[in-house]
C-alpha cells in the first residue's frame, strides 16, 4: 500500500461544555497541526498517489471555514462537542467527499483510504482513518 | 477507526547480556519516550476515544515501577532480555489489562486495540500493537 | 555559558482586536508549547544550572493562570494585545521574578539570563530573552 | 504485531519531466530522510524483531547507489518518473529482497511486512508498505 | 531581546565541484527547511516583532528564484560553491535588505538582527546571523 | 556569525548519588542526542564553517569512550556528578581541544566558539557554549 501525507494547520477557539472535560469546559483554544494521509494500492500513470497540489488545495479549502474561528459560533457544530477526535472525523468527511466527487482529480477516485491526524500539543494527537469508497 | 495517542517518558539502566547485542551487552541505559495509541471504532457519548486524563494516569502508573530504575535488578524482569521491543509489549500488557479491568473507565472496555511505541534515539524506535479484547 | 531548557504547554483562547492582525482579529486560540531556558556562567555545587524540579514547578505555576483560559477575560491582560511575543515576555517576567525572590531555590539567584520560547504552530514561534539580574 | 523502525538519509538530484509536476519538471533535488519499519508477529529468541545492526547495514547498502546522485543519470531509473512514492517502493523492494535472501540474517525470513517512509520536506512524506513473503 | 521565527522550504539541485566535498562533488540535491528569526529590542505598537505576514511574503519572494532550481545554472551563483552556509548568508542578505528598504514594513527598520537557518538533513544544519543595521 | 551544527547520540547508565537528585540518585540511564554547533565569523576558502566530515569524526571519537557505558565505572568521572550539564561541558572540552590541536583540520583553528547540546528527553536538554580560543 502506498501513502502520501501532507500537512497544514489551524488555530481555533472552542469550549467543551461538559463536566467530563474538567478544565477544558470553558472557552479555550488550540493549534491543530493537521496531517492528511492518502492511501492507494497502486500508483497513477504519473507514479503518484495523488496530485499533491490538489491535495493541499482541498486541505486548505477544508480548513478555511475553521481557521481563526470560535467553533462554538459555527452553526455546523451547534450542540456538538468539538473534541479533537470529532474534528478529525469532520475533516476526514470533507476530504473523502472531495475524493469521491472528483475535486481531488480523477485519481482521487482511486484512493483506498484516508487518515486525518490532528496534533493538539507535543504530547497528544487524535486521528480518524476510513475507507474512501 | 479513531485513535488518540499520548506521550510520557522514562530513563532507565539495563544490560543486554548476550553476545548478539555487541556493545550493548554491558550496563548502559536509555531514555524511552513512550507513545500510547488507543484505537476505537466509534466515539463515546462524550465524542472521545478515551478519557485522556485517565489514559495519562494509567500510563504514568504503568511506567512508575520502571522510572529511574536499573531494569536488571527488577524481579519481574529476571532472566529476560529487556529489549525495546520487549518493553513495548510489557507496557502494552499493563495498559491493555487496565482497559479490560475498568481502570481506564467504562469507555476503556470499548477499545479495539492499543499500540505502544518506545523511541530510544532520534534514529530508532520499537512498538507493539495488539487487540484489547 | 551553561543552559538548561525545559518544556510545558498551554491551550488558550484570545482575540487580537486590531485590523493589523487580519483573520486573527476575532476570537480564536492556540496551543503554546513553552520552552524555558536558564543560563548560568558556572554550575552549582550539584553540577547543575538549576534544580530542574523547581524549574518545572515554577513554570507550571506561571502557566496555571493562563491554562484553558480565554485571555480576553483575564483582568491582567485588559486592553493588551496578547500576541505570542507579549506572552513570551509575560512568562519571562514571572520566571525571572521567581529566580530573584528565591522561588527557584538559592541557586536561582545565580542565573545570568532566561529565555522563554512559545511555539504557536509547526511554522512559527516567538521568544523573549533577558537578564535575570 | 511488533515493529522496529530505523532511519537513514540521502541527498539526490532529479527531474520529473512531465507537465503534471509543474515547477518540479526541471532539474531540482531533495533530502530524503528514510525510515524503514520492520514488522513481525513474534519476537526472535533474542527478544528482537530484527538485528538492528544488520537492518541499518542493509538500509545503508540500499541507499548507497542513490546517495549524492543525479537520479536522471542512473540506468536503473531510465524513463521512470522518480517520484517520492516510486522511490519508497524501490527501497522497499531492495530491503524485502534482503529479508528473503537472508541478508538480514536468519530472522529476516520471519518478518511479516516492511514499510519504507521518505520524508521530503517538513510538510510532505510518502511511504510504501508491503508483505515480505 | 524579542524574537519571531518563521519557516518555509525549498528543494534544489546543485554540485560542489571541489575535491574537498568528496561524494558531494557531483550533481545532487537537497531539501532546505529554512527558518528565519527576526530580533528586536522592543515590540512595535502592535506588540509584535514584525508583521508575520510580511515576513512570510518576503521569505517566499526570497526563496522563489531558488525553488526547484539547479543552482549550478543560476548566473548569480556562477563560480560560487553553493554550500549550505553560503546559501544561509545569501538568504540573510536578501531579507536584511528587505528590512532596510521597507519591504518588511516600517517596523522592519527597527529590527536588531536576523538569523537564517537551513536544515539540510535530520542531522545537519547551518545558519548565518547578522545585524540588520 | 556563521554556524554549522551536527548530531550524534549515546546511550549510557549512571547514578547521581546525592539527595538533591531525588529519584535519579540510583542507577538509571539516558539516551543523549548530542548536537554540536561550530561558530565562525567568516567562511573558509571552501565556503564552509568546518569540514563536516572531520566534525562528525571528532564527535564520534569524543563520544566513543562514553557510548554504551556505565559512567559510574569510568575512572575519568570518579567522584563527579555526571549531570547532563557536566557532560555537555566534558564533550565541549574535548571538541574545543580538537579544534585547537588541528584534529578538526587547519580550519578548526579559525572557529570562534562551540556549543554542545544534550537532549535527554523530549522535554529537557542542557548545553554548554564557550570560546574555542
Provide an overview of this structure.
The structure is a homohexamer of 133-residue chains. Chain A contains 2 helices and 4 strands; from the N terminus they run ββααββ. Chain A has 133 residues and is an alpha+beta fold. In chain A, strands 1-2-3-4 form a 4-stranded antiparallel sheet, covered by helices on one side. In chain A, a hairpin with a 4-residue loop joins strand 3 and strand 4. Chains in contact: A-B, A-C, A-D, B-D, B-F, C-E, C-F, D-E, E-F. Chains A and C meet through strand 1 and strand 2 of A and strand 1 and strand 2 of C.
Task: Pick out its properties.
homohexamer, 133 residues, alpha+beta, 4 strands, 31% strand
Task: Outline the fold blueprint.
The structure is a homohexamer of 133-residue chains.
Chain A: E1 2-14, E2 28-40, H1 52-63, H2 84-101, E3 113-119, E4 124-131
Antiparallel strand pairs in A: 1-2, 2-3, 3-4
Helix pairs in contact in A: 1-2
> Strand tally of chain A, please?
4
The greatest interface here is: A-C, 24 and 24 residues
N-to-C series of helices and strands of chain A: EEHHEE
How many strands, what sense, and barrel or not for the largest sheet of chain A? Answer: 4 strands, antiparallel
Number of helices of chain A: 2
User: From the helix content, strand content and strand pairing of chain A, which structural class follows?
Assistant: alpha+beta
Q: Could you estimate the helical fraction of the residues of chain A in percent?
A: 10-25%
Strand content of chain A: 25-35%
Distance between the termini of chain A: 16 Å
* Dominant shape of chain A: elongated
Mean pLDDT value of chain A: 96
Low-confidence runs of at least 5 consecutive residues of chain A: none
CA radius of gyration of chain A is 16 Å
Adjacency order of strands in the biggest sheet of chain A: 1-2-3-4
Oligomer: homohexamer
Amino acid at each position: 500500500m502506498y501513502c502520501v501525507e501532507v500537512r497544514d494547520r489551524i488555530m481555533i477557539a472552542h469550549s467543551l461544555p461538559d463536566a467530563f472535560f474538567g478544565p477544558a469546559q470553558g472557552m479555550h483554544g488550540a493549534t491543530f497541526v493537521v496531517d492528511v494521509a492518502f492511501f492507494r494500492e497502486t500508483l497513477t500513470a504519473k507514479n503518484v498517489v495523488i496530485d499533491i497540489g490538489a491535495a493541499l488545495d482541498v486541505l486548505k479549502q477544508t480548513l478555511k471555514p475553521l481557521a481563526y474561528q470560535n467553533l462554538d459560533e459555527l452553526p455546523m457544530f451547534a450542540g456538538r462537542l468539538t473534541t479533537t477526535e470529532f474534528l478529525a472525523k469532520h475533516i476526514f468527511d470533507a476530504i473523502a467527499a472531495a475524493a469521491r466527487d472528483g475535486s481531488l482529480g480523477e485519481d482521487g477516485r482511486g484512493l483506498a483510504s484516508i487518515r486525518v491526524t490532528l496534533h493538539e500539543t507535543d504530547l497528544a494527537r487524535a486521528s480518524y482513518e476510513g475507507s474512501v469508497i
